[in-house]
Specification:
Blueprint (H helix, E strand, L loop, with lengths): L1 H27 L1 E3 L5 H12 L10 E3 L14 E5 L12 E5 L4 E4 L7 E4 L3
Parallel strand pairs: 1-6
Antiparallel strand pairs: 2-3, 3-4, 4-5, 5-6
Amino acid sequence: MRDLQRFLIVLLLAIGSAFAFWNTSSDRQTIDVARLPPEARETLALIKQGGPFPYQRDGIVFNNFEKLLPLQPRGYYREYTVKTPGRKDRGPKRIVAGKEAEYYYTEDHYKSFRRIRESP
């Protein structure tokens, strides 16, 4: 009986740990609009109003070569520069917009993405 109790306790702890990891990793993959840097919120507003955009390459097709975003046909995603204070070049920050009005933020030039979560 004691062995069964120990087994159940270990099992419940393992399930709890797995759930905690899943929940945390899921949160790392999203970001609320309010938690974006001000420059990213400005870029998002420009995207939604259709511009004008400050960088010539804003709005070009993002090909998702890294395959970190959901797979879609070529041309589905567009990329936009998020100004990086103190940088003279475009910097590493971008917002990638999908045709279904989903938005992703990267601050490390496509090495990772977080889906932008908007309030209803």
